Amino acid sequence: MSTRAMTEPAFLVLTALADLPRHGYGIVAEVDRLSGGGVRLKVGTLYGVLDRLAGDGLVELDREEAWQGRLRRYYRLTDAGARALEAEAARLAANVAGARERLRLRHQGGTA
């Protein structure tokens, strides 16, 4: 992935896969939980994000299992995906720190 900012869905999908492999519905449910319901991925959106992340080498197929007559594909975070997630988390944290500092100055009546 390039140095540009990740989309929120991509960031949340990588975060959902950071601890263990998940299948599509599991990713959707985890993204919903992580975002406090603020991001609700539709299936088409999820697989578009997964395809882009896989194309960038950030996620990969872990396994496929038959479940109730359907095939479930489980995805996992790659090492490159973990590095990209860490870099994006650091970028976001720096942005948050900058915003908090500006707000602190505002509350003190200072200017930036």
What does this structure look like?
The protein has 112 residues and is α+β, with helices and mostly antiparallel strands. Helix content is 55%, strand content 17%. The protein is built from 4 helices and 3 strands, in the order H-E-H-H-E-E-H. The chain has a 3-stranded antiparallel beta sheet with strand order 1-3-2. It is elongated, with a radius of gyration of 17 Å. The protein starts with 7 loop residues before the first helix and ends in a 5-residue tail after the last helix.
Categorize the overall geometry: elongated
Report low-confidence residues grouped into runs of 5 or more: none
Going across the biggest sheet, name each strand in turn.
1-3-2
What average pLDDT do the residues reach?
92
- Euclidean distance between termini CA atoms: 33 Å
Number of strands: 3
Produce the secondary structure layout.
Elements: H1 8-16, E1 22-23, H2 24-34, H3 43-55, E2 59-67, E3 70-77, H4 79-107
Antiparallel strand pairs: 1-3, 2-3
Helix pairs in contact: 1-2
The gist of it:
With 112 residues, this protein is α+β, with helices and mostly antiparallel strands. 55% of the residues lie in helices and 17% in strands. A 3-stranded antiparallel β-sheet has the order 1-3-2.
